[in-house]
Design goal:
mainly alpha; rod-shaped
């Protein structure tokens, strides 16, 4: 029968949360950057006939 993995210790859990927070911030920055890029492209297309 398969055994379940042990729950992470305090320091391992902290490291996991730090890595996850870093990935979340990176994803947010990418999404905001893409939104600004699309917004800028839209404005340029509206101004330029």
């Amino acid at each position: 029968m398969a055994e379940f993995p042990k729950p992470p210790t305090g320091s391992e859990a902290d490291a996991f949360r730090r890595r996850r927070r870093g990935r979340n911030v990176a994803i947010i920055l990418v999404l905001v950057g893409l939104s600004l890029l699309f917004y800028a492209i839209t404005i340029v297309k509206m101004v330029k006939p």
